[in-house]
Description:
The complex is a heterodimer of chains A (547) and B (328). Chain A is of the alpha+beta class and 547 residues long.
Amino acid sequence: MKPVSRLAAPLALLTAALGAYALAQQPTTTFTVVRSSQWGAQNLNPFTPGDQHLQATNSAIYETLFYVNGLNGKVTNVLGTGYTWSKDNKTLTVTTRPGVKWHDGQAFSANDVAFTFNYLKQYPALDLSGLWKNGLTSVKASGPGTVTFTFARANTPIFFYLAGTPIVPQHLWSQIKDPLTYTNSKPVGTGPFTFDAYSLQAVRVLKNPNYWMRGQPYVDAVVWRATNGNDAALLQLLKGEADYGYVGIPDPKGGYAAKGPNYSYWWPTNNSNFLYFNTTKAPFSDPAFRRAVATAINTRDVALKAYSGVLAAAPASAVIPAQQAQWLPASMKGLTPKYDPAAADRALTAAGYRKNAQGQRLGKDGRPLPTFKILVGAGWTDFITMAQVVGDNLKKVGINTSIDQQTWSSYSGGLQTATYDMGISWGWGNGPTPYYLFYSSFSPELSAPVGKTAPSNLSRYTNPALTQALARFRATSDPAAQKQAVATMVSTVMKDMPWVPLTDRAQFSLYNTSRFTNFPTAQNPYNDGSPDDVPGARLMYLNVKPK
Amino acid sequence: MPYLLRKFGILLFTLWVALTLNFILPRLVPGDPIGAMIAKYQGRLDPQAVTALTKAYGLDNQGTLIEQYFGYLGRMLRGDFGRSIGQFPTPVSDIIGQAAPWTIGLIGVTTILSFLIGSAFGLYSAWRRGGRVADALPPLALFLNSMPYFWFALLLLYLFAYKQSLFPLGNNLDPFLTPWTPQWWSSLLRHAVLPALTIIVTAAGGWLITMRNNVMNVMGEDYLAFARAKGLSEGRILNRYVLRNALLPSFTAFGIALGFVVGGAIFVETVFSYPGLGLYLYQAVVGLDYPLMQEIFLFIALAVLVANFIVDALYAVLDPRVRDGRTT
Lengths: 547, 328
């Protein structure tokens, strides 16, 4: 036995040294993401509110049941392999993927899915999409590969949120009693990457060798780098220090793509910018006034001046181009706002807002209308330009405006508490069908009395016809019935004009293609061009290939 | 000692005022943190999250303003600063602990360096008045001192990081290095060069002018003429008579400048994405992160107060008139 043990010691040493060497080896292909913001302390808890967990948590480490493409609603199977709604749309049955392993080697099963959703019920502060508040009554694993979701009332759009909930392992999370403040420093998920290193400057994940999708991902590691703003992030992309960044710059064509063959971008339209009217204030409480004002605004000019041709005028229906074919009735397709100052002028007079001898527009009480403020974010050049064009347009019909630049918190606070006159902002709450935008913008539940914070009903507009259409949409999974409900929503809103859709709004993906290919593009839209902190980014990390 | 005791009393009182302002000011900012967060996601965060977020941040049941105020004072005294909203659930103290060394290291060291360099040149410029270099220094210093911080930082960044790639574009370190190794130190220094240069170049000019004026004043004093008449060596006059007396007023200003290290860090740290207190303060204000804002403000107030107190104390040692409590 002696010689063996004499040999064993150096062998063990050698093995240890080799092991250490293997660990110290740097990954050969690293896909680098640059962020235009900083992150703080190390937190990989996927249930932490907001995106205050590290980006990797949502996009590389944890997986969801499905990925729903936000542009066209296309569903990609992830941990779920199929789903069906019951006849009354109150039961959803999801089959789960067999043969999936957690990062620690334990098997994933439908029990983990049921556990995750019941965990959200147990800790309501984790339920960021309000699943249990919106009618979910029970989640059960009805077999090793089936999960059944039961609802008190039909609410089919909830699928989008259900599908996007990160699934965590029961064997680890059942031990965690303070999930709200738990920072999860050693995350165990089912995703294509495992957590490796964290610092204030960079976060790294490494390829999961046991990932269920054989052969993918093609890269060995993904690294996120923090910067403090768009300019810094853009420089890193231009210098080739990063391969991808979600960076909103004013002119992606001239300011980025034109600088070289390896610089490309994909900015699919996923939302719109709106001129919101505060409908709690006269004269904005008068639909006739709002309609007339809408006709006076030249949205093509607004888009051209604000985005120099990169983004177009918004469709008047507020249904984004990617969803129009599926959701808009033929009669409403391609409706662009009709700009007609003369008609606007006549309509205002007809509605009781006459002009005086000086050309000033008068209120219904016969006194000149005050100068209305247009609320924008301080220094947001695109919104300020929009407000200028809107102001010039309204001047022509005798309405005076001024631009009210506010810092971020006053801006969002002003919109949410309805203390503004008119304000420019994006659609608060968009999703894979037009329902989500109309629901967040105009549903009574998301409104609040003036002075109180409304989550997203900024114009404080509700209409029974619209509220009913929203309810009809929720209650069915039949695309034809849903399409009809959307048509009602669109026509109601276009008639009452609580907002004016001004310009398109897009995702901001910038690529440096010198090292990798197969990015999501308009020709290959396998995700919705979404930023790196949402589940859609996982598809990019799975598909990008080293050149 | 009644002089120092009185100063200490003022320190405590000012601290209380600072704490109270600290409590009031964030509440005067319109909007609420949850609203700001929902808005920040520009439609990507579900509005349904409001209830969950309110609960998560403990904003749902806060009590009356008075209760909040005394609760706040009590927590401050116990050193419990709560959890950050912007970086939930990290305790604010952890964030400060992580960020403060970078700010103190970068801005603190460069403030001292710019004081030393500026004062040395100021002394030289006054002492060698009439020489070509000495007379060229003050206008140059005025020019550099009046240059906007921000603009100079961007210029450096563009020339030496983007065009020439001599230095990194930002941050404080290359990722994934083992701390305290030679590579780590070299990375740390390379990242510090441009921000440090920004501060030293723009701040040293001010110290140069201050010091030069002080020295000129001293040089006009009778005791210098007397010292010269006694036949003392130039070196002795410079060290014992000029430098000591000229440093005193600069010293006061320096004490205050040290106190403002944290506040002054905002610009440099924002331009260079340097993860110090200034950057976090900026982010806290934008995100309505009350707990983080409050502790950084408190940190600044404490730094200014303590620096002032130390200067006062040192003055008592250095200046007999102060020590005796006489005002003239």
